[in-house]
Amino acid sequence: MKHPARVAGLAGALLMLLPPAAKGEAMLQYFNTSWAELTRKMPELAEAGYDSLWLPPPTKGSGGLSVGYDCWDRFDLGSKDQRGSVRTFYGTEAELIELVRVAHRFGIRVYFDNVMNHNAFETPSYNASVPEDVYPGFRPGDFHLRTTAEGFYRKWDNTRDWNDAWQVQNLGLSDLIDIATEPGTTNFNHGPVEGSTATKPDFVRHPNNPEYYCYVPTGAGQKHSAGQGTYVGFGPNNGITAASITANGSFYTERVEDFLNRAARWQIDRTKADGFRLDAVKHTPADFFGATFGGDKDSSNYGYTGQIQQQFNLSRGFTDWNNHRDSVFDTEKGRDDAMLFGEHLGQPPGYGSYIDAGMRLVDNDLRSSFNNLLGNPSSGLNGYDQPGQGGFSPSVAVMHAQSHDSDYAARRELQHAFYFTRAGLGLVYTDGNYHAGVLGASGGAFPRHANTAFLGQWGDARIPNLLKIHNDFARGWQRGRWSDADLVTYERIDDREFSEGNQALKERKGVTMLVAVNDNYASGRGIVGGTSFPAQGGGGSENNPETNDEYLFQYAHGYGSQTGFYTYASGLNSVVVGPGSYFIFAPRTPEESDAWKNAGGEPITIYQGTEKAGSFEVERKDGTDGDPGFNPHGLPDANTTDYAYRISIPRVTNTSDLRFKVRTDGSAENIMLLLDGGIDLNGTRPPGNTDPLKRDNPPALSTDSFLGYEQPGFVKRQFAEKFAAKDTLRNKAGSAGAETYQRVIGSAGFTIANGPANANDYSTQGGEVAAFLYHDPAADVGGAPAGGWPGGMAPKQYVENASTIAVWAKPNGVGNGFRMYFYYTTDGSNPEGAGGDGTGSTKVVEMNFSHNQSSDDWWMNASIPKPAAGLTLKYKIGIFKTGAASVYPSGPNTVAKKKNMMTVFEVSGFNAGTVSHSPHNDYGATETGLAEGFHVLRARPFLKRSGKASLYSTFTQTFYYDALAPGGQIMFPAADGSSIGGSEYGVVVRADNFTNEVWYKIEDGEASNDDSATGTNSGNGAWVKASEVTPFGGITPLNAAHTREFRFNYVNIPATGNATIQVRLKEVTSSPDNGLSDSAGHYTTLTRTVLTAGPDRKMFVAFPQNDGAAIGSDYVLKTYFSKSLADGLTDAELKARLAVRYGPDDSWPEGVQTLPAGALSIVYNETADYHALAFSLPDFYDARPDFLYRVEISQDRPVPMVDLTATRRLAAQAGTGPYVAILQPLEVDASGRPVEIVLPDQPVDYTVRVGTDATATAVNLSFAIGSGALTPVDFDPVAPGIQPEIQGSSAFWDFTWHVTAAGQYRLVATATLPQAVKTETRHVAVVTQQEVLEREAAASPGLAAIAGGYRVSFPTLPGRIYQLQVSGDLVSWSDSGAPLSTAGADGPGIFQAEDTSGSGKRFYRVVIAVAP
């Protein structure tokens, strides 16, 4: 018999067999935000440095407000009108597809949460009124259900014993209906008593949906579920029909697990997602997911993960049929697999078999460890310099501080630092700063409030800073350096680019960064543990990649002592990491060139031909519970409380002859360029590369460090550029602040803005820069050219001719390689630029050598275009030398030198209209030409490090490709000449994806209905913005690309006459000025002429004045109506004719509610022409800030008069009620398991956390049941009173509970807020360790047959000693193997042993004792 082995969150033997991880992508879990807003956010996410998104379940839940985990229809992504809505909580299917397309355009992968264990809450055939197929495609036999004597069904209880793996997998989870996912023909828990079995139904589940299938039979006995027959793909054009499904019924029948496999495959194909986060995997048997053993398990298409990987290859064109899992577990391999990672919230069942089935796991063990250790003076971080310590190995771990299930994170800032620098795959969680409401006993909101500054909100740039560090340095394996109670240091070693047998040399050549984390929040810690960077004291040398003492930069910014500084590696032991802080050291990678940056330039510049591309401003906005002053770049902002800022973005309007120019400092040996997710930029490909799209670093063959990057052409590398001055002591490097000459054309004299005094030291730095550059426009040119001056008289250094200007300047005798440029403006701005290129409106003309004067040179240009008379000419003159070699920043002098240098690479002649590319960055479908909309360029400059790990930095530039005007069509009225009547008419417009606004104006010759007369914004005689609505499935536009739908009402329609309806389609680059022509305003105007046949009376919504307004429950709406409509009626009779209905606009009239008559009031003589109906609506905010509700006011008039109707589409104002919740402890965990505090043999201190709005002034915590000592934790002892920890718009109040006795307790938190005093209660169970031990001992070991014997498994907890014993007669027991101690374990595990002795009948038991 083998000795027992523990397989748990610690690095057990099974986990260590997996390949090591290198660079893990930076993932953002982004929840509670619409697909449309996520799409708009993509440029910001790319600029921040996120590589992938984990998004909520995209399928339709039990209702339109469902977060998605109560799955209803796995084939509804927001396209079917069911469960009260077409759209899901997040949007429509079209918006979802566009989200993925845009994410891929920005090189960001997308992983959707995927639910396979359960459906929603309803039970099929619960009674006679609930159909058995209430869930599309399912029947009762597909679920774990109890049958009743009457032939109906009931759900089983939720799991009672979480140590019983059978219950975990066959009973309920949070009252959701449990699917029988166990493979095979038998349902393990279906019948009258628990444990009853039944045969699973096997039938055709979608006979009328051929688009949900992908195979056709080619022979007898084949099965679609087995992947047999011919693959024809999913979708409406696959050739499968309802008739062919009926004719081949046996081929298309399937059990529930096959149905789930097909649904997952369809979703991968339909959305082009890059993988899934698999929900609640431990509630589903591991062998449902995939092959867990055998030499071919990694290439097997079996099971859920195998089928997903098979479809990923088929849909995306990958051909790695020999291994579906290698790039799942090794993120630095070229990605050719769908990324799959599961949620497993603790054993049993054991972790190992799920990993074996082909998935990573979300590392809850590591999170729990850090929550117990970080900031805890009584705990230590010993061992946490090692990869995988405290959780899973790097090849398995998906590390997180918070999630939609868990908001408590001890010292979250340190957790983020660990997760984005240590080996493994780290993530940040956000709810988009849209706070969900509190969900019952879960202890908080669902999804949980994040309060993370994921884009640098609240002036906190730590996460964006960590993302940059992660992307530039966090790759390779993790090399531990030091760990003790407070200090952890480790390095990342990337040894993939060279071969080295000596381990010390391998680490020296491969080290990319050193991380030092100090968990002591009271005092700093000096760095110990050494480094792999060369660290020989006094061995440093300038400009030397082989220096013996590496010159390191501290990259971590944003908190306390986290400021950039340099130190030699030999001096690291004198560096003190501040309290509760972290430092990250690496050589200084290429930066922006000061010469270009200080002149106003960006590292990446786009040119259209010879001219720099124009720009426009776009608004970026935070969520409604986010940062009112959101402005992470510190840009000018007129309104600092509107949650928004504006940023300038380049706008590309040419399709051809584009140039992308990258400028960095002088340390860049090479620069690579990435357009979107990877598009050919140079028309070539490296030798041996057969990619049909000519990508230099194509998918599957390239690691993430190089994926999609192209090699641009080298332009130049220059030394510092010196600018001219009248007094050469004022010569300075760089145009910013350099001497500026000013002259009004045609006038006499000059104005000179002097450069800085004594800026020039006259050094040539070994011939690399000019010693001086002299220019005095009023002085004569010295010396004379060959042949003398015309007329024998030297000219002035500035001469205006009829159409040109001639300018001279004098440097010292500089020799070859130097170039001189004249930088000028005529619009009043200062001329700025570098290297012969201008920034802003600066124009540039090159100057050339003219003649010598003694040892000095004179340069000139006689063809500078002369501006018109009266214009102000401003100019500067610069000189620099090209031909520089890159410098290595190995000392302070080289660092200073490189910043004044400039390296330039360029892609030229790029044709954005004809380039062939893959929109999903794969080998699947291709497209020609860039899509209209936002795109991104990334530049990656590299240090010169031959034979070592690459070191680089990354620059990002978003731009907008604007080659087309918006397109669309007026759907209704359908044609010119249509006759429209009624009190209002609904106009329907369809537009393409990049149309973001629709405006309208109606001209009908009726002055009395103009907006200027009615006081409303109805579009009568004035331009008004229309509302975007959920597209109606019954409308088919002529152009399938017109997927967005906008609507508005033509109100107060005249009784006779004609009207012209103008509709204006706009995109983000269109002008807000509606007075321009279409070409000048960059918009498209559609028109429709109609005949009007309205009623003789008017009724319209006056307040709010326009559609789309957000209102609260205290807002008074008013509808105006003609006074004659009240003639002869009492107040009661008039109200009886009026009705107000309201409900969701996209499902109208389903779910509509009617206001009671008592809620209506008549305001007589509101205006000279109208009475008013006034009313307020109840609070209908449902966490969807932009979701539209419809309000319809109708008047029932006697026959034969025409009834009147007035409508308004409105958004609900977000609630502002006070928030308080006890976040720790919870009553139940994320899986519905009751939370208990375990009390060992002595009292323990437990942290209770209360969350409130940041406006709360005090929180008190007390006992309603039980008693004990509760001590508040003061997060700011300097400030008066007890201060909470502030995170974003939330405050967290911690209390230390000194727990001394087991029992049942009830805590009451009372929060004082400006709006109110509010309380929250929490039931808490405290149990003794002995009680837990006894429950644990009551569980039976798991027994599984293996080749030649049995495997015994048993769940373990920390602090135990487990001994397996064997008996042949249940009387005499003997130990089998050595005992297993979990004294040092960080979390639950699995005790596992195999008996292959082949002997007769044997019995097993596990004896458990508390570890000493």
TrEMBL record:
Coiled-coil regions, chain positions: none
Signal peptide per UniProt: 1-24
Keywords from the named record: Signal
InterPro entries membership: GH, GH13_cat_dom
Chain ranges of the Glycosyl hydrolase family 13 catalytic domain: 25-462
Superkingdom classification of source: Bacteria
Positions of transmembrane segments: none
Keyword presence, Glycoprotein: no
GO terms classed as biological process: carbohydrate metabolic process
PANTHER family referenced in this protein's UniProt entry, alphabetically: ALPHA-AMYLASE FAMILY MEMBER (PTHR10357)
Protein known as: Glycosyl hydrolase family 13 catalytic domain-containing protein
Organism: Luteolibacter luteus
